[in-house]
Amino acid sequence: MQFIQQDPRDAFYAYYKRNKSTVTWEVMKSFLLNQMQDPVNRALEAAQRYQSAAQKHDQSVQRFVTYLELIEDELEPYSEVHRVQHLFAKLLPQIQTAITDFHKLAATRIALVELASTLERNLQKKGVLKTHRSGEDKERNKGDRRPTH
Q: What is the DSSP string of 97-142?
């Protein structure tokens, strides 16, 4: 609590005294997020970010999946089938096309990420996709409203 000051700290101490419960990281994180923004607006903003999320041309599959998972952490859980479908729809069109050449969508999110990453590397070797550079990620993320937790 040494880095949390004034109102949020005082509000959390009052909450803790009232509830006399064991404080887990999840309880504390949720409480502090609620202090910064009400849960309804935060959920709506997360839903909007998720809806508009799409892999950028200078963003690897792995980096995009990480970004998407950060948003998903703020939403009610989707089924595995929906997570696979949503990820597929948000990938670059060239990667989507390469995946559909297999005529079978991966059954799990992990399998889709592995397949998409492999195909991404193959497309880069063929010159269809640009190779990603780590320095470009900072520029790409300008204006992104990443979840804070």
A: HHHHTTSS--SSHHHHHHHHHHHHHHHHHHTSSPPP-HHHHHHHTT
Does residue 40 contact residue 33 with C-beta atoms inside 8 Å? no
Q: What is the pTM of this model?
A: 0.71
The two tokens of residue 52 are: 């508009």
Chain centre to alpha carbon of residue 78: 13
pLDDT (tens digit per residue) in 30-80? 777 887 788 899 899 999 999 999 999 999 999 999 999 999 998 999 999
63: phi then psi, degrees, rounded to nearest 5: -65, -40
Length of the chain (residues): 149
At residue 146's C-alpha, the angle toward residues 33 and 81, to 5°, is 95
